[in-house]
Write a structure and sequence with these properties.
By secondary structure, the chain is an alpha+beta fold. It has a domain of 63 residues: Up-down Bundle (Methane Monooxygenase Hydroxylase, Chain G, domain 1). It has 10 helices and 7 strands. Strand 6 and strand 7 form a beta hairpin. The protein starts with a strand and ends in a 40-residue tail after the last helix. The mean pLDDT is 83.
């Protein structure tokens, strides 16, 4: 089964890659610090956790199952079971994918489980193999390091989503298309996925930071409080993205409606212009024998002149009603405003010279 194991004995010596039997012996000794990181959990891994490490069957089932479990924390007396979520950066997708991290935290052990490779686990393992720093301060600090890196890796995704939102906002104004609508909906689904897993984690971190569990010592509680603050910031940023997405969707629908209105306006003007012309052409297209104008020398020129006058009159009418903007002065773009320095409280103008009073 693919797992990495580390054991920091009471003498401060770190052993990497220990076997299952050594893990069991270190777990039962209740000395030092044992860390087991399991990736792509199988039934064999579940039997190892349930029979060797004596974890509860329901918690082991959550680790084996590929379904998404909500963030939570369960107290089993000798250990606590924590489920938190981050971003799955190993999967390329147009919609944000989340990844689940399960942590068994006890006084002398940490067992982390995730069905997808996580950069945070790779980084902590690299630090542990280099100098063992993540394991020097105890199990609660090791669990904090894993969760903290998992949450910190959410911010780059939020920044990327913000860049996408900015591109969408520009596209909805300049050239709204069907692909723009698809991008808006994908971004909206991504923000909903982030909100669905990040919002409940605040309560989990809040419980870990207020001394509810004996596995988290007093000096480590403030560090979990720091993770709580990061979650609040992420949720605020994600909420802003949700608002921007809703505004972009409204702007897109308005732009499309305005385009349709412009198209209908042009078609209406064309129909209005050619309606009297069609009437004239229809009258003189009739095959009556007694039509005086047909034998008139200037009849053709009179009809053509009437048609021209009708076209010019209709266009002038549209221009007077401001339905046509040809030849009109366009509004100047709104410029960034600047407040006059003299109106700012505390500003001292260096250009104004105060005259010296003459001594009496």
């Amino acid at each position: 089964m693919p797992f990495k194991s580390y054991y920091l004995n009471p003498e401060g010596e770190l052993k990497c890659g220990i076997s299952e039997e050594e893990c069991k012996a270190a777990f039962e000794s209740k000395q030092g610090l044992l860390w087991v990181d399991i990736t792509e959990t199988t039934e064999e891994d579940g039997q190892f956790m349930e029979h060797y490490l004596k974890f509860h069957h329901l918690a082991v089932e959550d680790c084996i199952s590929v379904q998404i479990h909500p963030p939570k924390i369960d107290d089993f007396g000798d250990y606590i079971f924590i489920v938190v979520h981050g971003i799955n950066h190993k999967v390329e997708s147009e919609i944000v994918e989340t990844a689940e991290l399960a942590v068994f935290l006890g006084p002398h052990f940490v067992v982390s489980n995730h069905n997808y490779p996580l950069y945070c686990a790779d980084a902590v393992r690299q630090l542990a193999e280099t100098d063992g720093r993540p394991m020097m301060r105890g199990a609660d600090f090791l669990a904090h390091t894993l969760i903290d890196m998992l949450i910190d890796n959410v911010l780059p995704t939020i920044d990327r989503m913000s860049d996408v939102a900015e591109e969408i906002e520009e596209e909805t104004i300049r050239n709204p298309r069907q692909t723009t609508l698809e991008a808006i909906l994908k971004l909206k689904r991504s923000t909903l996925r982030v909100h669905r897993v990040m919002a409940p984690q605040r309560e989990v971190m809040n419980r870990l930071s207020r001394g509810e569990f004996k596995m988290v010592r007093g000096e480590a509680q403030i560090f979990y409080r720091d993770i709580y603050d990061h979650l609040v910031r992420i949720e605020d940023l994600n909420q802003n993205l949700r608002d921007r997405t809703d505004n972009a969707l409204t702007t897109y629908l308005s732009s499309v409606a305005n385009r349709q209105n412009e198209t209908m306006k042009v078609l209406s003007m064309v129909a209005t212009i050619f309606l009297p012309l069609t009437l004239v052409a229809g009258i003189y297209g009739m095959n009556f024998e007694y039509m005086p104008e047909l034998k008139w020398t200037w009849g053709y020129f009179a009809v053509v002149g009437f048609i021209g006058i009708a076209i010019v009159t209709a266009i002038y009418f549209f221009w007077a009603r401001q339905w046509v903007t040809w030849g009109r002065k366009r509004a100047v773009r709104v410029r960034l405003f600047a407040v006059e320095p003299e109106k700012i409280v505390g500003h001292i103008s260096h250009l104004v010279r105060v005259p010296h009073r003459k001594r009496q």
